């Protein structure tokens, strides 16, 4: 027990019995001599100035301004700002190394320092010379604290939906609205507030204002009670006709959203680095604890299960560190992959490091649940990292969007043919949307209940069929003018059925070709097929929808036309279909004959569909096998020709 109590006052920074060079989780691996020196400075500061007071700051909910000013003297207030106004001009990787070490001393305070640095960088990068001279020196020394104000009560993940507005009134903006969960609020001297111009929507109408506490109409809400991050205050900000000079605008009138996103990319790397520092410290403490804690006659570290868990924790820490530093390097170089890689770093590191800290707490058993030990505070503090700077669900959206769109955009920029293909796809989509809109012109009456819902669906189907019929009858009138034959109706509807079957076959072939390209890796070997496949997918979906409607309408009209023709031929009476049903004085033999004729016509039309299905399935299957074989061998053009010939062979047969 005494050994355990003694261990709580010591924070091990990668100091084990074995030499550091054999420790695979050593955070200095891969760093230059200069970066190792920066790391040592940050480690010593965290060990001496932050860790001994971490629990006290958490309990008293106290932001240590004196410690922050000491950090400013070292150069931690404007780490990646330019030197002309007091910045340290270090790289993003250097900043990640610093925040990782500071977080081992106190996650909450280090996280606020990362937000403050983000604000200082935004002013240093996008501000005027006057703004830089006014704010950056004080922020570099932590004399003036900064707060980033994007989130609102009604807009968190959907940042572009913010509704705090500003209208021009002379040489001032008049601001109305509110912001929520603002870190540092109440202690900060400058607030970077994202606002919307009046009568605008979306990202383009957003801009940024530098606001200060004490401005008329600027008020602070109560200090929020939080699960973690207790050493940094968080409040709601309210603006009621708050007048702000136009000279306080940061960047252009429509640049606010881009500025906010540029800042938050760095914020994601920084916050992931803070999670990493907590995870590294928790792992070190867990190893020390299990070396002295005994159960069943031997130290916990000798149990294979615990060794396996430590291996998993170490792997998560190392992979998190690698992805964070890689993202920081891309951020420094302003790579086109910056947004996606920063999102990956935050997603992977915050999730993995939380699991590491949680497992370390479990290894401490009941002691880990006590506030005498730091794991519970690490756990509470880094839990918020999965939410702040964009929730991890939003990180997944950013990564998925980049994976889906980047290949297409890169191809469009290189070859105008892909642009033409994309334009064709867009045109097909517009035609399809217009067609669907025509189907929905007639609105059904709202009803309630299961029976009413059935009636509503039935009415919608009838309306859709009515729109389809009107559309195809317009085509029939045009055909009748162009082909004035006695059997033009039958010819038109037979052509309609044939074209619909042919169109469906070709759409199926396109789908098979795309599936084959993916399965055989053709897209990986030849990226030009990506845009081609995308275009065919866009065309195939409306084609399938339209040809299904064509087939249904064409067959129903053929049944009616054949029935009329056969009836007239047998009985010499020119009766249209509707009159035939209404006449009740016809001979019963005519009625029986009509029933038989109707059945025959239906069998004939159904036979067309059956013939198509029976012929197309084996041919399409053969085409699929040939396509897979040819795709694997790289013979795309001959395989494509062969598949189209097979598809056309359905009708030749």
UniProtKB/TrEMBL annotation:
<keyword id="KW-0472">Membrane</keyword>
<dbReference type="Pfam" id="PF06472">
    <property type="entry name" value="ABC_membrane_2"/>
</dbReference>
<dbReference type="Pfam" id="PF02770">
    <property type="entry name" value="Acyl-CoA_dh_M"/>
</dbReference>
<dbReference type="InterPro" id="IPR006089">
    <property type="entry name" value="Acyl-CoA_DH_CS"/>
</dbReference>
<dbReference type="InterPro" id="IPR013786">
    <property type="entry name" value="AcylCoA_DH/ox_N"/>
</dbReference>
<feature type="transmembrane region" description="Helical">
    <location>
        <begin position="418"/>
        <end position="435"/>
    </location>
</feature>
<feature type="active site" description="Proton acceptor">
    <location>
        <position position="389"/>
    </location>
</feature>
<dbReference type="Pfam" id="PF00441">
    <property type="entry name" value="Acyl-CoA_dh_1"/>
</dbReference>
<dbReference type="GO" id="GO:0016020">
    <property type="term" value="C:membrane"/>
</dbReference>
<comment type="similarity">
    <text>Belongs to the acyl-CoA dehydrogenase family.</text>
</comment>
<comment type="pathway">
    <text>Amino-acid degradation; L-valine degradation.</text>
</comment>
<keyword id="KW-0285">Flavoprotein</keyword>
<dbReference type="InterPro" id="IPR034178">
    <property type="entry name" value="IBD"/>
</dbReference>
<dbReference type="InterPro" id="IPR036250">
    <property type="entry name" value="AcylCo_DH-like_C"/>
</dbReference>
<dbReference type="GO" id="GO:0005739">
    <property type="term" value="C:mitochondrion"/>
</dbReference>
<keyword id="KW-0274">FAD</keyword>
<dbReference type="InterPro" id="IPR046373">
    <property type="entry name" value="Acyl-CoA_Oxase/DH_mid-dom_sf"/>
</dbReference>
<feature type="domain" description="Acyl-CoA dehydrogenase/oxidase C-terminal">
    <location>
        <begin position="254"/>
        <end position="401"/>
    </location>
</feature>
<feature type="domain" description="Acyl-CoA oxidase/dehydrogenase middle">
    <location>
        <begin position="148"/>
        <end position="242"/>
    </location>
</feature>
<keyword id="KW-1133">Transmembrane helix</keyword>
<dbReference type="GO" id="GO:0006629">
    <property type="term" value="P:lipid metabolic process"/>
</dbReference>
<feature type="transmembrane region" description="Helical">
    <location>
        <begin position="481"/>
        <end position="503"/>
    </location>
</feature>
<feature type="transmembrane region" description="Helical">
    <location>
        <begin position="534"/>
        <end position="555"/>
    </location>
</feature>
<dbReference type="Pfam" id="PF02771">
    <property type="entry name" value="Acyl-CoA_dh_N"/>
</dbReference>
<feature type="domain" description="ABC transmembrane type-1">
    <location>
        <begin position="478"/>
        <end position="652"/>
    </location>
</feature>
<dbReference type="GO" id="GO:0005524">
    <property type="term" value="F:ATP binding"/>
</dbReference>
<keyword id="KW-0812">Transmembrane</keyword>
<dbReference type="InterPro" id="IPR011527">
    <property type="entry name" value="ABC1_TM_dom"/>
</dbReference>
<dbReference type="InterPro" id="IPR009075">
    <property type="entry name" value="AcylCo_DH/oxidase_C"/>
</dbReference>
<feature type="domain" description="Acyl-CoA dehydrogenase/oxidase N-terminal">
    <location>
        <begin position="32"/>
        <end position="141"/>
    </location>
</feature>
<dbReference type="GO" id="GO:0009083">
    <property type="term" value="P:branched-chain amino acid catabolic process"/>
</dbReference>
<dbReference type="GO" id="GO:0050660">
    <property type="term" value="F:flavin adenine dinucleotide binding"/>
</dbReference>
<dbReference type="InterPro" id="IPR006091">
    <property type="entry name" value="Acyl-CoA_Oxase/DH_mid-dom"/>
</dbReference>
<dbReference type="GO" id="GO:0140359">
    <property type="term" value="F:ABC-type transporter activity"/>
</dbReference>
<protein>
    <recommendedName>
        <fullName>Isobutyryl-CoA dehydrogenase, mitochondrial</fullName>
    </recommendedName>
</protein>
<dbReference type="InterPro" id="IPR037069">
    <property type="entry name" value="AcylCoA_DH/ox_N_sf"/>
</dbReference>
<dbReference type="GO" id="GO:0003853">
    <property type="term" value="F:short-chain 2-methyl fatty acyl-CoA dehydrogenase activity"/>
</dbReference>
<keyword id="KW-0560">Oxidoreductase</keyword>
<comment type="function">
    <text>Isobutyryl-CoA dehydrogenase which catalyzes the conversion of 2-methylpropanoyl-CoA to (2E)-2-methylpropenoyl-CoA in the valine catabolic pathway. To a lesser extent, also able to catalyze the oxidation of (2S)-2-methylbutanoyl-CoA.</text>
</comment>
<dbReference type="InterPro" id="IPR052547">
    <property type="entry name" value="Mito_Isobutyryl-CoADH"/>
</dbReference>
<dbReference type="InterPro" id="IPR009100">
    <property type="entry name" value="AcylCoA_DH/oxidase_NM_dom_sf"/>
</dbReference>
<keyword id="KW-0101">Branched-chain amino acid catabolism</keyword>
């Amino acid at each position: 027990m005494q050994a355990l109590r003694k261990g709580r006052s010591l924070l091990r920074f990668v100091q084990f019995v074995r030499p550091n060079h054999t420790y695979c989780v050593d955070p200095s691996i891969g760093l230059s001599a200069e970066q190792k020196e920066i790391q040592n400075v940050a480690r010593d500061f965290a060990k001496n100035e932050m860790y001994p007071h971490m629990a006290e700051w958490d309990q008293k909910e106290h932001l240590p301004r004196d410690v922050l000013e000491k950090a400013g003297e070292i150069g931690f207030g404007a780490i990646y700002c330019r030197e002309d106004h007091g910045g340290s001009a270090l790289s993003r990787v250097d900043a990640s190394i610093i925040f990782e070490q500071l977080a081992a001393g106190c996650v909450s305070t280090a996280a606020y320092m990362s937000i403050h640095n983000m604000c200082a960088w935004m002013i240093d990068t996008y501000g005027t010379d006057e703004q830089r001279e006014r704010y950056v020196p004080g922020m570099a020394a932590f004399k003036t604290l900064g707060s980033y104000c994007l989130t609102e009560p009604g807009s968190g993940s959907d940042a572009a939906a913010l509704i705090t507005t500003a209208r021009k009134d002379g040489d001032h903006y008049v601001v109305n609205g509110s912001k929520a969960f603002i870190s540092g609020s109440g202690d900060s001297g400058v607030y970077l507030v994202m606002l919307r111009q009046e009568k605008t929507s979306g990202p383009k109408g957003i801009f940024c204002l530098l606001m200060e506490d004490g401005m008329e109409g600027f008020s602070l809400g109560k200090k929020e009670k939080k699960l973690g991050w207790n050493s940094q205050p968080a409040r709601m900000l309210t603006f009621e006709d708050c007048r702000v000079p136009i000279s306080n605008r940061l960047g252009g009138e429509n640049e606010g959203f881009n500025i906010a996103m540029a800042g938050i990319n760095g914020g994601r790397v920084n916050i992931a680095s803070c999670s990493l520092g907590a995870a590294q410290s928790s792992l070190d403490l867990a190893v020390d604890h299990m070396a002295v804690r005994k159960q069943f006659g031997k130290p916990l570290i000798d149990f294979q299960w615990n060794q396996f868990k430590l291996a998993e924790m170490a792997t998560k820490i190392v992979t998190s560190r690698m992805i964070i530093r890689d993202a920081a390097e891309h951020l420094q170089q302003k790579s086109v992959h910056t947004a996606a890689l920063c999102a990956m770093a935050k997603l992977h590191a915050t999730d993995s490091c939380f699991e590491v800290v949680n497992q370390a707490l479990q290894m401490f058993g009941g002691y880990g649940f006590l506030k005498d030990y730091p794991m519970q505070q690490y756990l509470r503090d880094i839990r918020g990292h999965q939410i702040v700077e964009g929730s991890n669900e939003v990180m997944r959206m950013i990564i998925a969007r980049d994976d889906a769109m980047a290949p297409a955009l890169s191809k469009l920029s290189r070859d105008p043919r892909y642009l033409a293909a994309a334009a064709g796809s867009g045109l097909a989509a517009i035609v399809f949307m217009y067609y669907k809109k025509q189907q929905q012109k007639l609105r059904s009456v709202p009803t309630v209940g299961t029976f009413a819902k059935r009636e509503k669906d039935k009415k919608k189907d009838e309306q859709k069929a009515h729109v389809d019929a009107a559309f195809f009858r317009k085509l029939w009138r045009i055909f009748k003018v162009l082909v004035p034959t006695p059997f033009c109706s039958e010819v038109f509807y037979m052509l309609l059925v044939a074209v619909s079957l042919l169109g469906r076959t070709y759409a199926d072939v396109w789908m098979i070709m795309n599936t084959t390209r993916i399965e055989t890796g053709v897209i990986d070997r030849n990226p030009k097929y990506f845009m081609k496949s995308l275009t065919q997918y866009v065309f195939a979906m409306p084609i399938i929808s339209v040809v299904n409607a064509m087939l249904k309408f064409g067959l129903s009209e053929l049944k009616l036309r054949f029935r009329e023709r056969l009836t007239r031929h047998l009985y010499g009476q020119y009766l249209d279909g509707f009159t035939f049903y209404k006449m009740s004085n016809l001979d019963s033999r005519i009625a029986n004959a009509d029933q038989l004729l109707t059945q025959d016509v239906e069998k004939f039309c159904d036979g067309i569909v059956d013939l198509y299905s029976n012929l197309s399935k084996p041919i399409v299957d053969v085409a699929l096998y040939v396509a897979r074989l040819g795709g694997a061998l790289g013979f795309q053009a001959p395989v494509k020709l062969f598949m189209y010939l097979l598809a056309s062979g359905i009708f030749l047969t």
